[in-house]
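Expect chain and fold; thus:
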Amino acid sequence: MPSVTHEALVELFKNRPTLAAEMLHDALGHPVPTFTEARVESSDFTEIVPSDRRADVVVVLLVGEQQQPAMAIVVEVQLGVDPDKPYVWPVYVTQTRARHRCPTGLLVVTIDAAMARWSARPIDTGHPGWTLTPLVLGPQRVPVVTDAGQAKAAPEVAVLSAMAHGQSEAAVAIGEAFFAAAPGLDEERRAVYGDLVLSSLNAAARRKLEAMMKSGYEFQSEFARSYVAKGRQEGRKEGILEAKAQAVLAILEARGLEVPAEVRERVLASTDLDELDRWIRRAAVISDARELLATTGS
């Protein structure tokens, strides 16, 4: 479920304001100024773009007793191709730079290698000399955290590690490191992060860790329960849609009717249960499969 993954990654950067700077410096080798505090600031740019296009997270690195901005980082979680992003990302950077009057970078976070390549493409703004090249934290750049001490010092990095590498051979060691460090977290983060780590690991690693906890694991956090419930509901609907679509095709084929590719594709792509019910009834009486998609009749 992309929405779960997106919100989870956003929360990691909000809960640990230094995470953006750490990933820029440690994972990407990008220079970061010395700072005394990292603070999450407003990411609302409604004066330029609609409110639903606001940046995911804006972190400002502060320095000195006066807490002067030394650098701002716009963090964008990207899980799918979005043709609007090459146009709004430069807006996010320039608006953040103008608001905080400091150097500003764009950090795109993704756990998909293909999306990392897409996100890293330079954006030609059309102005001479101004090409924005996003700094991309893809799965290959996320550290593999298998040390409990490291997980305890930076639990958000450990969770990010699980989300990026949870399907790899290191999954068990990643999970063990996190759960060894988990008792040091407050109750809310322990519940949310534990759910995220377990749901990110491959089945074998998850079974082993659940066995180590000596009981079947139940999702502990309200955050995870709400999304898991939504996921199960969507999963049930998808199962019903598929079953009805297959029923339509089975009736047509059982009656000896040839099913053209365009009809088959349209039936399998339907997400409307009422439409599929109508097609089931029509499939029993029509003489040509192409009549199934007619807009008249029932």
User: Anything to note?
Assistant: The radius of gyration is 24 Å. The chain has a mean pLDDT of 86.
